[in-house]
Amino acid sequence: MITKAITDTIAAVSTPPGASGLAVLRLSGPQAAECCDQLFQPYAITPLQPSEMAGYTTAVGTWAGLDEVVLSCFKAPHSFTGEDVFEISCHGGTAVKQAILDSLISVGARLAEPGEFSKRAFINGKMDLSQAEAVMDLIGAEASRQVQAAFNQLKGQLSGKIRARADALYELMARIEVILEFPELEETPPALQQLADDAESEGDKIRQLAMGYGRGKVIREGLRVAIAGRPNAGKSTLLNNLVGEDKAIVTSIPGTTRDLVEAHLIVDGYLVLLTDTAGLTLDTADPVEQEGVRRARRAHAEADLLFWLISPPLPATAELEREMAEIREIIAAGKDLVLVLGKDDQGESAAIQAMIEKYLTTVDIVRFSKQADDDTKRIKDKISDHLRQLERQYDQDTLITHERHRKLLEDAAAELAQAAAEIRSGLTLDLVATRLRQAAELLAEMTGDSVDAGLVDTIFSRFCVGK
What we know:
By secondary structure, the chain is of the alpha/beta class.
Protein backbone atom coordinates (compact mmCIF):
# COMPACT_ATOMS: atom_id res chain seq x y z
CA MET A 1 0.00 0.00 0.00
CA ILE A 2 1.27 3.47 -0.91
CA THR A 3 1.04 5.94 1.95
CA LYS A 4 2.05 9.58 2.03
CA ALA A 5 1.11 12.69 3.94
CA ILE A 6 -1.60 14.73 2.26
CA THR A 7 -1.55 18.38 3.25
CA ASP A 8 -3.57 20.10 0.53
CA THR A 9 -7.31 20.33 -0.05
CA ILE A 10 -8.80 19.56 -3.46
CA ALA A 11 -12.03 20.65 -5.12
CA ALA A 12 -13.86 19.77 -8.33
CA VAL A 13 -17.27 19.59 -9.94
CA SER A 14 -18.31 15.93 -9.60
CA THR A 15 -21.30 15.97 -11.95
CA PRO A 16 -21.03 15.96 -15.77
CA PRO A 17 -20.32 19.18 -17.68
CA GLY A 18 -23.11 21.24 -19.18
CA ALA A 19 -26.31 22.73 -17.78
CA SER A 20 -28.56 20.61 -15.55
CA GLY A 21 -31.12 20.96 -12.80
CA LEU A 22 -28.61 20.23 -10.06
CA ALA A 23 -24.86 19.85 -9.72
CA VAL A 24 -22.48 18.67 -7.00
CA LEU A 25 -19.07 20.08 -6.11
CA ARG A 26 -16.79 18.00 -3.91
CA LEU A 27 -14.13 19.23 -1.50
CA SER A 28 -11.69 16.95 0.36
CA GLY A 29 -8.71 17.57 2.60
CA PRO A 30 -7.56 19.02 5.92
CA GLN A 31 -8.74 22.57 5.11
CA ALA A 32 -12.10 21.56 3.64
CA ALA A 33 -14.11 22.83 6.62
CA GLU A 34 -12.20 26.11 6.70
CA CYS A 35 -12.78 26.72 2.99
CA CYS A 36 -16.51 26.11 3.30
CA ASP A 37 -16.74 28.28 6.41
CA GLN A 38 -15.45 31.25 4.41
CA LEU A 39 -18.05 30.85 1.67
CA PHE A 40 -21.16 29.32 3.20
CA GLN A 41 -23.91 31.27 4.95
CA PRO A 42 -26.62 29.14 6.60
CA TYR A 43 -30.22 30.26 6.64
CA ALA A 44 -31.39 31.83 9.91
CA ILE A 45 -33.84 29.02 10.56
CA THR A 46 -33.87 25.87 12.64
CA PRO A 47 -30.72 24.00 11.56
CA LEU A 48 -30.81 20.62 9.89
CA GLN A 49 -28.75 17.64 10.99
CA PRO A 50 -25.12 18.51 11.79
CA SER A 51 -23.95 16.76 8.62
CA GLU A 52 -26.23 18.79 6.35
CA MET A 53 -27.14 22.48 6.20
CA ALA A 54 -29.14 24.64 3.81
CA GLY A 55 -27.97 28.12 2.91
CA TYR A 56 -26.18 29.94 0.15
CA THR A 57 -22.65 30.42 -1.12
CA THR A 58 -21.03 33.82 -1.45
CA ALA A 59 -18.27 35.42 -3.47
CA VAL A 60 -15.07 35.90 -1.51
CA GLY A 61 -14.64 39.35 0.03
CA THR A 62 -18.02 40.70 -1.05
CA TRP A 63 -20.47 38.34 0.68
CA ALA A 64 -22.56 38.67 -2.48
CA GLY A 65 -24.71 35.60 -2.86
CA LEU A 66 -23.92 33.13 -5.65
CA ASP A 67 -26.55 30.42 -5.25
CA GLU A 68 -28.83 28.61 -2.82
CA VAL A 69 -27.16 25.33 -1.92
CA VAL A 70 -27.19 22.35 0.41
CA LEU A 71 -23.88 21.65 2.14
CA SER A 72 -23.20 18.06 3.25
CA CYS A 73 -20.31 17.11 5.52
CA PHE A 74 -18.67 13.70 5.85
CA LYS A 75 -16.14 13.69 8.68
CA ALA A 76 -12.92 11.70 8.49
CA PRO A 77 -12.49 8.78 8.47
CA HIS A 78 -16.14 8.11 7.60
CA SER A 79 -16.06 9.50 4.08
CA PHE A 80 -15.27 8.35 0.55
CA THR A 81 -11.67 9.60 0.69
CA GLY A 82 -11.08 8.99 4.39
CA GLU A 83 -10.59 12.75 4.84
CA ASP A 84 -13.02 15.52 5.75
CA VAL A 85 -15.27 15.77 2.69
CA PHE A 86 -17.84 18.44 1.89
CA GLU A 87 -20.29 18.26 -0.98
CA ILE A 88 -22.12 21.34 -2.24
CA SER A 89 -25.38 20.69 -4.08
CA CYS A 90 -26.18 23.71 -6.21
CA HIS A 91 -28.13 24.61 -9.32
CA GLY A 92 -26.54 23.12 -12.41
CA GLY A 93 -25.87 26.18 -14.54
CA THR A 94 -22.37 26.30 -16.00
CA ALA A 95 -21.67 29.80 -14.66
CA VAL A 96 -22.92 28.92 -11.17
CA LYS A 97 -20.72 25.82 -10.92
CA GLN A 98 -17.67 27.68 -12.15
CA ALA A 99 -18.25 30.63 -9.79
CA ILE A 100 -18.48 28.35 -6.74
CA LEU A 101 -15.41 26.37 -7.84
CA ASP A 102 -13.45 29.58 -8.40
CA SER A 103 -14.43 30.75 -4.91
CA LEU A 104 -13.26 27.48 -3.34
CA ILE A 105 -9.92 27.77 -5.09
CA SER A 106 -9.55 31.40 -4.02
CA VAL A 107 -9.82 30.44 -0.33
CA GLY A 108 -7.14 27.75 -0.42
CA ALA A 109 -8.36 24.68 -2.29
CA ARG A 110 -6.79 23.57 -5.55
CA LEU A 111 -8.40 21.97 -8.57
CA ALA A 112 -8.39 18.18 -8.25
CA GLU A 113 -6.59 16.07 -10.81
CA PRO A 114 -8.48 13.31 -12.68
CA GLY A 115 -9.30 10.50 -10.25
CA GLU A 116 -7.68 12.24 -7.30
CA PHE A 117 -10.59 11.71 -4.90
CA SER A 118 -10.51 7.95 -5.62
CA LYS A 119 -6.72 7.97 -5.40
CA ARG A 120 -6.93 9.47 -1.91
CA ALA A 121 -9.48 6.82 -0.97
CA PHE A 122 -6.94 4.19 -2.05
CA ILE A 123 -4.04 5.86 -0.23
CA ASN A 124 -6.12 6.17 2.95
CA GLY A 125 -7.15 2.51 2.85
CA LYS A 126 -10.82 3.07 2.01
CA MET A 127 -10.56 0.74 -0.99
CA ASP A 128 -7.92 -1.37 -2.70
CA LEU A 129 -6.71 -0.90 -6.26
CA SER A 130 -9.06 -3.43 -7.86
CA GLN A 131 -12.01 -1.79 -6.10
CA ALA A 132 -10.89 1.62 -7.36
CA GLU A 133 -10.82 0.25 -10.90
CA ALA A 134 -14.36 -1.03 -10.33
CA VAL A 135 -15.49 2.52 -9.53
CA MET A 136 -14.44 3.61 -13.01
CA ASP A 137 -16.14 0.57 -14.53
CA LEU A 138 -19.39 1.49 -12.77
CA ILE A 139 -19.19 5.04 -14.10
CA GLY A 140 -18.73 3.79 -17.66
CA ALA A 141 -21.25 0.92 -17.52
CA GLU A 142 -23.81 0.82 -20.33
CA ALA A 143 -25.35 -2.61 -19.70
CA SER A 144 -26.67 -4.41 -16.63
CA ARG A 145 -24.00 -7.15 -16.80
CA GLN A 146 -21.32 -4.46 -16.63
CA VAL A 147 -22.98 -2.95 -13.57
CA GLN A 148 -23.22 -6.33 -11.84
CA ALA A 149 -19.59 -7.28 -12.54
CA ALA A 150 -18.26 -3.88 -11.47
CA PHE A 151 -20.34 -3.86 -8.28
CA ASN A 152 -19.16 -7.35 -7.31
CA GLN A 153 -15.58 -6.18 -7.74
CA LEU A 154 -16.29 -2.97 -5.83
CA LYS A 155 -17.66 -4.85 -2.82
CA GLY A 156 -14.46 -6.91 -2.65
CA GLN A 157 -15.39 -10.24 -4.24
CA LEU A 158 -12.23 -10.34 -6.35
CA SER A 159 -10.01 -8.88 -3.62
CA GLY A 160 -11.14 -11.58 -1.19
CA LYS A 161 -10.25 -14.35 -3.62
CA ILE A 162 -6.84 -12.82 -4.35
CA ARG A 163 -5.95 -12.35 -0.70
CA ALA A 164 -7.01 -15.93 0.09
CA ARG A 165 -4.60 -17.19 -2.56
CA ALA A 166 -1.85 -14.88 -1.30
CA ASP A 167 -2.34 -16.18 2.26
CA ALA A 168 -1.93 -19.73 0.97
CA LEU A 169 1.36 -18.73 -0.66
CA TYR A 170 2.60 -17.17 2.57
CA GLU A 171 1.81 -20.47 4.32
CA LEU A 172 3.90 -22.34 1.74
CA MET A 173 6.75 -19.87 2.24
CA ALA A 174 6.53 -20.39 6.01
CA ARG A 175 6.92 -24.15 5.55
CA ILE A 176 10.03 -23.58 3.44
CA GLU A 177 11.46 -21.12 5.96
CA VAL A 178 11.17 -23.75 8.70
CA ILE A 179 13.16 -26.19 6.57
CA LEU A 180 15.81 -23.56 5.80
CA GLU A 181 16.00 -22.42 9.44
CA PHE A 182 16.31 -25.92 10.87
CA PRO A 183 18.25 -28.01 8.32
CA GLU A 184 18.68 -30.76 10.89
CA LEU A 185 14.95 -31.46 10.49
CA GLU A 186 15.50 -32.95 7.06
CA GLU A 187 12.31 -33.18 5.06
CA THR A 188 11.37 -36.61 3.80
CA PRO A 189 10.69 -37.12 0.08
CA PRO A 190 6.93 -37.51 0.73
CA ALA A 191 6.88 -34.17 2.56
CA LEU A 192 8.70 -32.43 -0.30
CA GLN A 193 6.34 -34.07 -2.77
CA GLN A 194 3.41 -32.68 -0.78
CA LEU A 195 5.00 -29.22 -0.86
CA ALA A 196 5.35 -29.45 -4.64
CA ASP A 197 1.77 -30.68 -5.00
CA ASP A 198 0.49 -27.80 -2.87
CA ALA A 199 2.39 -25.23 -4.94
CA GLU A 200 1.03 -26.76 -8.12
CA SER A 201 -2.50 -26.79 -6.68
CA GLU A 202 -2.30 -23.10 -5.80
CA GLY A 203 -1.09 -22.36 -9.31
CA ASP A 204 -4.08 -24.22 -10.74
CA LYS A 205 -6.49 -22.23 -8.56
CA ILE A 206 -4.94 -18.95 -9.69
CA ARG A 207 -5.02 -20.04 -13.33
CA GLN A 208 -8.68 -20.94 -12.91
CA LEU A 209 -9.33 -17.39 -11.71
CA ALA A 210 -7.54 -16.02 -14.77
CA MET A 211 -9.81 -18.05 -17.04
CA GLY A 212 -12.69 -15.85 -15.90
CA TYR A 213 -11.29 -13.21 -18.24
CA GLY A 214 -12.82 -15.08 -21.17
CA ARG A 215 -16.29 -13.86 -20.20
CA GLY A 216 -15.20 -10.92 -18.08
CA LYS A 217 -13.61 -9.18 -21.05
CA VAL A 218 -16.83 -9.50 -23.06
CA ILE A 219 -18.85 -8.12 -20.14
CA ARG A 220 -16.60 -5.11 -19.61
CA GLU A 221 -15.66 -4.29 -23.22
CA GLY A 222 -18.66 -5.69 -25.08
CA LEU A 223 -19.22 -8.58 -27.50
CA ARG A 224 -17.72 -7.61 -30.86
CA VAL A 225 -19.98 -8.58 -33.77
CA ALA A 226 -18.93 -7.77 -37.34
CA ILE A 227 -21.10 -7.91 -40.45
CA ALA A 228 -19.30 -9.11 -43.59
CA GLY A 229 -20.08 -9.88 -47.22
CA ARG A 230 -19.82 -8.66 -50.80
CA PRO A 231 -20.79 -5.09 -51.75
CA ASN A 232 -24.54 -4.46 -51.71
CA ALA A 233 -25.27 -7.70 -49.85
CA GLY A 234 -27.48 -5.90 -47.31
CA LYS A 235 -24.97 -5.46 -44.48
CA SER A 236 -26.00 -1.89 -43.67
CA THR A 237 -29.67 -2.86 -43.73
CA LEU A 238 -28.97 -5.63 -41.22
CA LEU A 239 -27.13 -3.22 -38.92
CA ASN A 240 -29.98 -0.70 -39.06
CA ASN A 241 -32.60 -3.38 -38.35
CA LEU A 242 -30.68 -4.71 -35.36
CA VAL A 243 -30.29 -1.30 -33.69
CA GLY A 244 -33.70 0.02 -34.78
CA GLU A 245 -32.40 3.21 -36.41
CA ASP A 246 -30.64 4.39 -39.56
CA LYS A 247 -27.03 4.24 -38.44
CA ALA A 248 -25.63 3.29 -41.85
CA ILE A 249 -26.49 4.73 -45.28
CA VAL A 250 -28.42 2.25 -47.43
CA THR A 251 -28.55 2.62 -51.24
CA SER A 252 -28.71 0.32 -54.24
CA ILE A 253 -25.24 1.48 -55.27
CA PRO A 254 -22.55 -1.11 -54.47
CA GLY A 255 -19.75 0.11 -52.21
CA THR A 256 -21.76 2.73 -50.30
CA THR A 257 -20.03 1.75 -47.06
CA ARG A 258 -16.32 2.58 -47.31
CA ASP A 259 -15.40 2.83 -43.62
CA LEU A 260 -16.48 1.00 -40.48
CA VAL A 261 -19.90 1.94 -39.10
CA GLU A 262 -20.32 1.08 -35.43
CA ALA A 263 -23.40 0.86 -33.21
CA HIS A 264 -24.22 -0.41 -29.73
CA LEU A 265 -26.90 -2.93 -28.82
CA ILE A 266 -27.91 -4.53 -25.52
CA VAL A 267 -28.65 -8.27 -25.66
CA ASP A 268 -29.44 -10.25 -22.49
CA GLY A 269 -27.81 -7.53 -20.40
CA TYR A 270 -24.57 -7.63 -22.41
CA LEU A 271 -23.17 -4.74 -24.41
CA VAL A 272 -22.85 -5.74 -28.07
CA LEU A 273 -20.60 -3.72 -30.39
CA LEU A 274 -21.90 -4.05 -33.94
CA THR A 275 -19.66 -3.15 -36.88
CA ASP A 276 -20.85 -2.78 -40.47
CA THR A 277 -17.88 -3.23 -42.78
CA ALA A 278 -17.06 -2.38 -46.38
CA GLY A 279 -17.98 -4.92 -49.05
CA LEU A 280 -15.22 -7.36 -49.92
CA THR A 281 -14.16 -6.59 -53.48
CA LEU A 282 -11.28 -8.65 -54.81
CA ASP A 283 -10.11 -6.66 -57.83
CA THR A 284 -10.68 -2.98 -57.05
CA ALA A 285 -8.04 -0.42 -58.04
CA ASP A 286 -9.68 2.35 -56.00
CA PRO A 287 -7.32 3.17 -53.08
CA VAL A 288 -10.26 4.22 -50.89
CA GLU A 289 -12.02 0.90 -51.49
CA GLN A 290 -8.76 -0.96 -50.86
CA GLU A 291 -8.38 0.76 -47.49
CA GLY A 292 -12.03 -0.02 -46.69
CA VAL A 293 -11.45 -3.71 -47.44
CA ARG A 294 -8.29 -3.71 -45.30
CA ARG A 295 -10.19 -2.23 -42.35
CA ALA A 296 -13.06 -4.64 -42.92
CA ARG A 297 -10.79 -7.68 -42.74
CA ARG A 298 -9.18 -6.36 -39.57
CA ALA A 299 -12.64 -5.94 -38.00
CA HIS A 300 -13.53 -9.48 -39.05
CA ALA A 301 -10.38 -10.84 -37.42
CA GLU A 302 -11.04 -8.97 -34.16
CA ALA A 303 -14.74 -9.92 -33.94
CA ASP A 304 -16.03 -12.46 -31.44
CA LEU A 305 -18.91 -13.31 -33.80
CA LEU A 306 -19.15 -12.79 -37.55
CA PHE A 307 -22.37 -12.47 -39.58
CA TRP A 308 -21.61 -13.16 -43.25
CA LEU A 309 -24.32 -12.04 -45.68
CA ILE A 310 -25.01 -13.63 -49.05
CA SER A 311 -27.84 -12.07 -51.03
CA PRO A 312 -29.04 -12.22 -54.65
CA PRO A 313 -28.13 -11.27 -57.28
CA LEU A 314 -25.27 -13.74 -57.08
CA PRO A 315 -21.86 -13.04 -58.59
CA ALA A 316 -20.18 -15.25 -61.16
CA THR A 317 -19.68 -18.83 -60.04
CA ALA A 318 -15.91 -18.46 -59.68
CA GLU A 319 -16.29 -15.42 -57.42
CA LEU A 320 -18.95 -17.15 -55.30
CA GLU A 321 -16.68 -20.17 -54.96
CA ARG A 322 -13.87 -17.92 -53.69
CA GLU A 323 -16.29 -16.42 -51.17
CA MET A 324 -17.36 -19.86 -49.96
CA ALA A 325 -13.73 -20.93 -49.65
CA GLU A 326 -12.96 -17.86 -47.53
CA ILE A 327 -15.92 -18.58 -45.25
CA ARG A 328 -14.73 -22.18 -44.87
CA GLU A 329 -11.23 -21.01 -43.90
CA ILE A 330 -12.63 -18.61 -41.30
CA ILE A 331 -14.73 -21.35 -39.70
CA ALA A 332 -11.79 -23.79 -39.77
CA ALA A 333 -9.68 -21.20 -37.92
CA GLY A 334 -12.16 -21.31 -35.02
CA LYS A 335 -14.12 -18.13 -35.66
CA ASP A 336 -17.81 -18.25 -34.73
CA LEU A 337 -19.59 -17.44 -38.00
CA VAL A 338 -23.27 -17.30 -38.89
CA LEU A 339 -24.21 -17.34 -42.57
CA VAL A 340 -27.06 -14.90 -43.24
CA LEU A 341 -29.02 -15.49 -46.44
CA GLY A 342 -30.76 -12.40 -47.77
CA LYS A 343 -34.20 -12.25 -49.34
CA ASP A 344 -34.35 -14.09 -52.69
CA ASP A 345 -36.34 -12.12 -55.27
CA GLN A 346 -34.73 -13.81 -58.26
CA GLY A 347 -35.16 -17.51 -57.57
CA GLU A 348 -31.51 -18.16 -56.74
CA SER A 349 -32.02 -19.96 -53.43
CA ALA A 350 -31.35 -23.36 -54.99
CA ALA A 351 -28.01 -22.21 -56.42
CA ILE A 352 -26.96 -20.76 -53.07
CA GLN A 353 -28.01 -23.92 -51.23
CA ALA A 354 -26.07 -26.12 -53.65
CA MET A 355 -22.95 -24.02 -53.17
CA ILE A 356 -23.31 -24.16 -49.39
CA GLU A 357 -23.69 -27.95 -49.43
CA LYS A 358 -20.61 -28.24 -51.64
CA TYR A 359 -18.28 -26.04 -49.62
CA LEU A 360 -19.72 -25.65 -46.11
CA THR A 361 -20.64 -28.95 -44.50
CA THR A 362 -21.15 -27.38 -41.07
CA VAL A 363 -22.33 -23.80 -40.88
CA ASP A 364 -25.00 -22.01 -38.87
CA ILE A 365 -27.55 -20.45 -41.25
CA VAL A 366 -30.28 -17.86 -40.70
CA ARG A 367 -32.45 -16.04 -43.24
CA PHE A 368 -33.01 -12.30 -43.22
CA SER A 369 -35.41 -9.86 -44.80
CA LYS A 370 -35.63 -6.24 -43.67
CA GLN A 371 -39.43 -6.44 -43.85
CA ALA A 372 -39.64 -9.38 -41.43
CA ASP A 373 -39.30 -8.55 -37.74
CA ASP A 374 -39.07 -12.26 -36.96
CA ASP A 375 -35.89 -12.47 -39.05
CA THR A 376 -34.27 -9.67 -37.05
CA LYS A 377 -35.27 -11.44 -33.83
CA ARG A 378 -33.74 -14.70 -35.06
CA ILE A 379 -30.45 -12.94 -35.72
CA LYS A 380 -30.51 -11.42 -32.23
CA ASP A 381 -31.20 -14.94 -30.95
CA LYS A 382 -27.94 -16.05 -32.60
CA ILE A 383 -26.15 -13.41 -30.53
CA SER A 384 -27.92 -14.74 -27.42
CA ASP A 385 -26.83 -18.28 -28.31
CA HIS A 386 -23.21 -17.12 -28.52
CA LEU A 387 -23.46 -15.40 -25.13
CA ARG A 388 -24.98 -18.49 -23.49
CA GLN A 389 -22.19 -20.62 -24.93
CA LEU A 390 -19.70 -18.16 -23.46
CA GLU A 391 -21.36 -18.48 -20.04
CA ARG A 392 -21.16 -22.28 -20.18
CA GLN A 393 -17.52 -22.16 -21.21
CA TYR A 394 -16.51 -19.67 -18.50
CA ASP A 395 -18.80 -20.36 -15.53
CA GLN A 396 -16.54 -18.94 -12.80
CA ASP A 397 -18.35 -17.10 -10.02
CA THR A 398 -15.58 -14.47 -9.89
CA LEU A 399 -14.91 -12.74 -13.19
CA ILE A 400 -11.70 -11.07 -14.29
CA THR A 401 -12.60 -8.00 -16.34
CA HIS A 402 -9.21 -6.28 -16.73
CA GLU A 403 -6.28 -7.38 -18.88
CA ARG A 404 -3.94 -6.13 -16.13
CA HIS A 405 -5.47 -8.60 -13.68
CA ARG A 406 -5.38 -11.50 -16.15
CA LYS A 407 -1.69 -10.93 -16.90
CA LEU A 408 -0.76 -10.79 -13.20
CA LEU A 409 -2.68 -13.99 -12.46
CA GLU A 410 -1.13 -15.86 -15.40
CA ASP A 411 2.36 -14.75 -14.36
CA ALA A 412 1.74 -15.81 -10.74
CA ALA A 413 0.45 -19.22 -11.86
CA ALA A 414 3.55 -19.66 -14.05
CA GLU A 415 5.83 -18.90 -11.09
CA LEU A 416 4.05 -21.54 -9.00
CA ALA A 417 4.25 -24.15 -11.75
CA GLN A 418 7.98 -23.50 -11.98
CA ALA A 419 8.34 -23.66 -8.19
CA ALA A 420 6.64 -27.07 -8.10
CA ALA A 421 8.93 -28.35 -10.86
CA GLU A 422 12.01 -27.06 -9.03
CA ILE A 423 11.00 -28.76 -5.77
CA ARG A 424 10.59 -32.07 -7.60
CA SER A 425 13.95 -31.66 -9.34
CA GLY A 426 15.70 -31.17 -6.00
CA LEU A 427 16.62 -27.51 -6.50
CA THR A 428 17.63 -25.68 -3.34
CA LEU A 429 14.59 -24.41 -1.46
CA ASP A 430 15.80 -20.84 -1.05
CA LEU A 431 15.43 -20.43 -4.82
CA VAL A 432 11.97 -21.99 -4.63
CA ALA A 433 11.04 -19.50 -1.90
CA THR A 434 12.03 -16.67 -4.25
CA ARG A 435 9.54 -18.00 -6.80
CA LEU A 436 6.79 -18.08 -4.20
CA ARG A 437 7.56 -14.55 -3.06
CA GLN A 438 7.42 -13.33 -6.65
CA ALA A 439 4.02 -14.97 -7.12
CA ALA A 440 2.74 -13.33 -3.93
CA GLU A 441 4.07 -9.94 -5.10
CA LEU A 442 2.18 -10.32 -8.37
CA LEU A 443 -1.06 -10.96 -6.48
CA ALA A 444 -0.38 -7.99 -4.20
CA GLU A 445 -0.01 -5.80 -7.28
CA MET A 446 -3.61 -6.61 -8.22
CA THR A 447 -4.99 -5.24 -4.98
CA GLY A 448 -2.40 -2.51 -4.57
CA ASP A 449 -0.95 -4.00 -1.38
CA SER A 450 2.39 -3.84 -3.18
CA VAL A 451 2.47 -1.67 -6.27
CA ASP A 452 4.63 0.84 -8.08
CA ALA A 453 3.60 4.47 -7.58
CA GLY A 454 3.82 5.09 -11.32
CA LEU A 455 1.23 2.39 -12.01
CA VAL A 456 -1.11 3.92 -9.43
CA ASP A 457 -0.76 7.34 -11.08
CA THR A 458 -1.49 5.82 -14.49
CA ILE A 459 -4.62 4.00 -13.31
CA PHE A 460 -6.15 7.01 -11.58
CA SER A 461 -5.28 9.37 -14.43
CA ARG A 462 -7.91 7.52 -16.50
CA PHE A 463 -10.65 8.65 -14.12
CA CYS A 464 -12.75 11.73 -14.70
CA VAL A 465 -12.17 14.94 -12.73
CA GLY A 466 -14.32 14.98 -9.60
CA LYS A 467 -14.15 11.22 -8.95
